[in-house]
Amino acid sequence: MKKIPELPVEKLRRRCDPARFKFKTTEDVPPLTGIIGQERATKAMNFGLRVKNKGYNIFMAGPTGTGKTSYARSMIKQLAAQGKAPDDWCYIYNFREPEKPIAINLPAGNGEKLVKDMERLIEEFKNDIPKALDSEDYEKQRNAIMEKYQKESNSLMEALEQKVSKQGFVLKRTGKGIFIIPLFEGKPMEQGQMEALSDEQRKEIEEKSKAVQLQMDETMRKIRTLENQAKEEISTLEKKIVLTVIRPDIEYMKRRYEKFPRVVEYLDEIQKDVIQHLDRFKIKDDKDSALPWFLTEPRDESFFIRYKVNLFVNNSGCEGAPMVCETNPTYYNLFGKIEGKAQFGAITTDFTMIRSGAIHRANGGYLVIQALDILKEPFSWNALKRTLDNREAAVENIGESFRAIPITTIKPEPIPLDVKVILIGSPFIYHLLYNYDEDFRKLFKIKADFDVTMDRNDENIDKYAAFISSLCRREGLKHFDASAVARVIEHSSRLAEDQIKLSTRFNEIVEVLYEASAWAELDDAEYVTEEHVEKAIDEKVYRSSMIEDKIQEMIIRGEILVDTSGEAVGQINGLSVYQTGDYSFGRPSRITARTYLGEEGIINIEREAKMSGRIHDKGVLILSGYLGGKYAGERPLTLTATLAFEQSYGGVDGDSASCAELIALLSSISGIPIKQNIAITGSINQKGGIQPIGGVNQKIEGFFKVCRQRGLDGSHGVVIPIQNVDNLMLNREVIEAVKTGMFHIYPVKTVDEAIEIMTGIPADEFHKKVSGRLDRMAEEAKKHSPLSQENKTD
């Protein structure tokens, strides 16, 4: 039997020699610029951020902790600083359609100027217009107009009185109007005199009265016409005088903003509106009012809101293109809203209550959003897609789309949109959106894929040291000496589960750096050393390993049955990994097999109990393929076998135990016992090749802990796939035990090599015994077949 060599100590962990570093501490290392080990993602980001075409937004896909958000912010910040500050956006009153406020854009910083200029302009109008209408010149011209029309009115009244008098009547003025009274002997007729008249006389007076009334109506119509003409002439005078007052200010403003046609047009509209609403600017004269001053009606200031400017987006402080990171992407936070105020039991609004959202503030720049956050917010995702597709940002409250009865409200003019949206999320979210949302693939054409590992080469190791240096400087941590940096590199390879890789899950690395610095503080050390990093890692594990310790205790007490000595037929120690949130650990599991006559083949007890996952089911089915190919070339297999993970109550998945299950099954068939002081892990294919598995470090360490607590005697060990040798980053306790010959790790390529280690006999001899037992089982099955029983009867 060929002896399978065990792994030497040098293969169990890839050390990082502190002597390779050219510095004593990270104080001597320049801080890191950029990101480490994400060449594919950085190339995609560089391209995506520079493409201006529609739909070239970016989705940054990668597991949590790979530095996506930090990198996005730093890179976009650098790129944005090279860009141009976008225009300010303002909403102004629409004098023609008040319910549709107008959006105007001005170069950054000019929006604030326009707001202040308009406030100053209207205040000047409110002061200057009343003064102009209270001036002596105005009063003279107004009085001249009034006197002119008053004379004409008086002449008409005098002519009317003369006509009326000739016809025997007189005009009497009262508070209720002008009345016609008949004359009797040159004096107004009394009521008694009227009653003393005969019917014919009264009838004659009534007839004349009607004719006089017509004459009076005609005269009053002429007088009203004169009054209207007087009012129009006074109004024209007022407009003329006010125009001479406001035109210089308007013309000054138009020259100031002559490069912006929409502002000039807006100023012309203001001039027309002010002239049309002069009464709003007049100060009422309440000198003769009987009411005290605090009860007099003030000037309606709400009217002047129409002349305000709503500075919707203010980019005066931008030194480049804007970068907005929206951490709470609700609909209103992203797309703005139209606020309202309660007034007399109702909600009112106007264009000054239009508020911007992140999409407006990021216009002309970059908007960064966490994909999961926006997908959790109602209405936000669909609104974002619609906005990017239309390339314009409208402000509309959510309720407007769902009202049963439409109500009158304002509809602001949409703003043209030029923004690059960067979504950050997991690969799972990316593939969900790509496969189930047709709009997503049209709008997010750039995928920046972040890896969880990078090559462990000199360049990346030096960058790791620079990363530690930059973190220490930024967060005020104690600096790390060369031995501490070397230990961090080794821990990074452990997280990556690969000797030739380093982890890019920097959030986990940062936690260790923080805690190592804290332990150095407690030790009052000047620098963080290897011992502090080791302490931080051990304490972090200890805080999370309570369940692992409980399981280990149950194994030692015999509550969970696991043998670590002796031999047993149809029984083997498999290895499994448990995940408890942020911590994973390995533990041995007893796998048993029973075989007997029958034709049902291999029965997976876990599957029958509905406790088996699909991958585990596939692994068991592969065993049938191996058995058929190996032993059923000349005869059918006539057996029934059952496989079970003993004391498994939470379900089983994965195929890493398929090699162990096969050896347990063959042991049950052949009657050859399996060593219980050795555990095995590995997946198997139908041809008997051993395939790599995950969690190899945790599995080895889990079995090692059980053996150590029961007492290592130099016979204990673990069989692993040879492909997993590069994944070994074992802890120092295991390495020390291997070094002293108390524990062994065997890499294997085929199931035959695993059989020889687990049973201690050559594989050929083992297979012969299995074949011999299968032959006997086939003969026994043949004796008990229905056809054989009929022949005996004949």
What does this protein structure show overall?
By secondary structure, the chain is α/β, with parallel strands linked by helices. Helices cover 48% and strands 16% of the residues. The strands form ten sheets. A seven-stranded mixed beta sheet has the order 23-24-22-21-26-29-30, with helices on both faces. The protein starts with 38 loop residues before the first helix and ends with a helix. 35% of the residues are buried. Mean pLDDT is 88; it is low at 286-291.
Properties at a glance:
794 residues, alpha/beta, five-stranded parallel beta sheet, seven-stranded mixed beta sheet, 27 helices, single chain
Mean pLDDT: 88
Rg over CA atoms, rounded to whole Å, is 48 Å
Q: Strand order across the biggest sheet?
A: 23-24-22-21-26-29-30
Number of strands: 30
The biggest beta sheet, please?
A: 7 strands, mixed
Instruction: Name the helicity range.
Output: 40-55%
Oligomer: single chain
Report the sheet-strand fraction: 15-25%
Structural class given helices, strands, pairing? Answer: alpha/beta
Which regions have little confidence, pLDDT < 50, spanning 5+ residues? 286-291
What is the first-to-last residue Cα distance? Answer: 51 Å
Number of helices: 27
Overall geometry: elongated
